[in-house]
Amino acid sequence: LAERQLKSSGPAIQSDPAWLLNYGQLLARSGRVNEASAVFRRVAMAPNSEVVLASGEVTGTREASRRALRGLRLNGLSAR
Known about the structure:
Layout: H1 2-7, H2 17-29, H3 33-45, E1 50-52, E2 58-60, H4 61-74
Antiparallel strand pairs: 1-2
């Protein structure tokens, strides 16, 4: 349901780094680690913009994507 809701936002928003970070998190939590990793790498290469994380911290999208990738690796979720 969450994926359907995210994707219903339309193709224009789906290239937004903040949207991609949310989508990557959804993929990771769904066990689709390779897809999540690809999404986070895409954000890391995109122009940087500020986002507010769930914790309330303000950071750049590139930094948020690097943290997400580290989290995948640290949690042993990276593909082998």
